[in-house]
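Bench notes, bay 3.
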Amino acid sequence: IGTKFLGLYMVYLNITLEKGKLYSQATGENKQVMQPVSDTRFWVKSYDASIYFNLNDQGDVESITYHKSLCKKKEPIQSNDKESLNAYAGWYHSAELNTSYQVKYEDEQFYIAHVSNGKVPLKRVWNDGFETDAFYMPLVDFQRDDKGTIVSLTASQYRSRNIKFNKMQSPN
């Protein structure tokens, strides 16, 4: 089994290799053994589903197909220093929830904060994706415009996905 399958995919599925076997792990779940069916198809018994790895012309994995959904492979983290994290800093507002969060790097800590929920550390897991230990917001993805500027974030948890928070010019 090659290492080309390893990585984090947009379906929040992490593929790892241990003792010659591939494992998949969805956010908040245990690792599951992936049984090879073909060179690019693996069966996961506990999911009762196959995961198909889609290769480009060079033979590298670009994405997976899982439950009929095409899920792109996430880019690895390029940098995790204060300067790169500060690009995400600011206030974000959700009209749907009528609430705002602040993203900030302070005291050698990168976090997201809410007036009622306090500060929650953000752990970078891919270039624009972060995890938290907060049950109400374990996944935070930032979106960029065509110029590469951070314009919004989406928060996801087990019952709701991709709740959008637009970046604000100021908190008022």
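Next record in the batch:
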Amino acid sequence: MAQWDEMWKRKQLAEQARLERERRALDRKQKLELAAEKTQAAQAAIDVLENILVQSLDADTVVDWESLKNYDEYSIPKPEKPKIGRKPKSTDVKYRPRLSLLDWFIQSRKTKKLTSAKERFKRDYATWVKEKEKAESEYEKAIEEWEQAKDEYIRKRDENNATIDKKREAYLRGEVEAVLDYCDIVLSNSEYPDYFPKSYDLSFNPEGKFLIVDYQLPDIKTLPTVKEVKYIQSRDEFKEVPLPKTKRNSLYD
């Protein structure tokens, strides 16, 4: 029995060792893949910077004036008519008292029950009328407010679209403010890496018809600094290979 226990123990230890080797192998594989992904990301950031001027020149910078307009209809739905409860009727069962044989023989008892039923009907009918008038009044007010909001939305929408048409016409005439607005739209919509400040000053000479752009460049310290990421298996650590200083300077220039 002791021999069997010892054999089982050795088998368990061997199995644990095998699983540990597999875990370490998988862990190393995953870390190697992660290093490759980090390297790919670093190279992509460098490629973006290297080609930023070419990409900017190739980009379609023509402003689509129509795309700046809004043709959407008023999106808030019209208020729905209120659901008013059923109108009470004097012939409803609840207003028709059940008269016993005694009630038919004693007129005062019969009269009392009939009078009570009529009063109950009058109260319920008056309450229904009051609730109906209140619901209709609130609905009319909601419709009025909705129509006012809709008219205001359409007014502002059409006014904004007309302003865009005027800006387009002014741009085509070469008016300074319109040209600067146009160029501001182009530059603000241009795609640059996050470390670009997107800060600039514009000036336009209408006589010479040339534009001066004073664009603030990012600090060189904010540019990509990593060329490659390696995984050192012997030390179980990642190591960043820096981008040579000469390469960083050439990218900045």
